[in-house]
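Input C-alpha cells:
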C-alpha cells in the first residue's frame, strides 16, 4: 500500500520514515510513503498557503487553491487512494479504522492547520479524522499516529506477522501482563503458571488477566464485548470480588 502526506512541515515525517520498525519497513519498500510540501503548489512569488478568514476574527485559514492542485497531482499518482483530512472535527480514529485502511490501496493524508481549512476543501476529501479530544497545533501528529497504526498492520512490517493479532484492542480487550527474565527481581516474581510449561493453563490465565485488566481500566470496552460462558463466569467472579 502507499501513503501520501500533504503538509507544510515535511521534516516532521523524517523520523517516521527513517527510524524504528516503520522506518525500516519504509526503507525496504514494504509500503511506500511520500511526503509532499503544500507550498510546492502555492503561487509565486510569495507561495502563500493561508489567509485571513472572511467575516473577521483571529487565526488563519488554509487556502483552497494549493490544496486543489496538490490533490489533483497526487491523485494521478495514487488514483485508488482515499483522501483523509486530519481535523479535530473528524471522527475519532480507532483500531477498527486502522484495520480497514490497512486493507486499502492507499491513503492521502491532508494535514489541516488547527485554525481551520477553507470549507470548500471538505468537498474534495473522502473522510475526516481526529485522534482524540484535545487540540494540536496542526494535523501532522495526527497523520503520524494514523500512518503508524495502519502501517504496522501491513503484512511484513512487524517481524512476526502474528504479533499484531494479540494487540490490545484488536480483540476488544486490553492485553494480559507480560514478563521476561529474571524470574525474581527486587522481590517481585513471575506468576508460576507462566513458567509451568502448561500451554492450556497459560492461555486460560492470559484470557482471564485480559478480562481483569479490561474490567478495571476500560469497562467501556468490556461492555461492548461478546463473551463466551467461561469469560462471563470469570467476569461475574471479578465483579463479586471472588477472582
Ligand atoms: Cl487531526 N488535528 C488537530 N489540530 N488537533 C487534533 C487532531 C487533529 N486530533 C486530535 N486533536
Amino acid at each position: 500500500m502507499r501513503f501520501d502526506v500533504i503538509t507544510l512541515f515535511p521534516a516532521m515525517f523524517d523520523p517516521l520514515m527513517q527510524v524504528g520498525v516503520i522506518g525500516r519497513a519504509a526503507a525496504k519498500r514494504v509500503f511506500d510513503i511520500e511526503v509532499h510540501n503544500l507550498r510546492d503548489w502555492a503561487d509565486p512569488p510569495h507561495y502563500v498557503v493561508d489567509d485571513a478568514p472572511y467575516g473577521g476574527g483571529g487565526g488563519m485559514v488554509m487556502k483552497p487553491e494549493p490544496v486543489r492542485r496538490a490533490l489533483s497531482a497526487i491523485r494521478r499518482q495514487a488514483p485508488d487512494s482515499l483522501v483523509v483530512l486530519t481535523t479535530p472535527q473528524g471522527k475519532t480514529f480507532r483500531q477498527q479504522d486502522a484495520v480497514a485502511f490497512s486493507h486499502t490501496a492507499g491513503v492521502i493524508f491532508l494535514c489541516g492547520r488547527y485554525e481551520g481549512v477553507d470549507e470548500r476543501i471538505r468537498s474534495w476529501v473522502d473522510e475526516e479524522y481526529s485522534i482524540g479530544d484535545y487540540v494540536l497545533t496542526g494535523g501532522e501528529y495526527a497523520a503520524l499516529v494514523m500512518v503508524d497504526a495502519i502501517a504496522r498492520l501491513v503484512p511484513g512490517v512487524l517481524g512476526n506477522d502474528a504479533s499484531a493479532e494479540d494487540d490490545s484492542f484488536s480483540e476488544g480487550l486490553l492485553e494480559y501482563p507480560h514478563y521476561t527474565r529474571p524470574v525474581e527481581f527486587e522481590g517481585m516474581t513471575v506468576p508460576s503458571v507462566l513458567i509451568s510449561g502448561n500451554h492450556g493453563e497459560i492461555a486460560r490465565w492470559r484470557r482471564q488477566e485480559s478480562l481483569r485488566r479490561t474490567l478495571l481500566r476500560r469497562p467501556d470496552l468490556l461492555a461492548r464485548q461478546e463473551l463466551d460462558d467461561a469469560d462471563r463466569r470469570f467476569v461475574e467472579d471479578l465483579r463479586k470480588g471472588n477472582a
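The two ends are 45 Å apart (CA to CA). The beta strands are 2-7, 32-37, 50-51, 61-62, 82-92, 106-111, 127-130, 184-185, 188-189.
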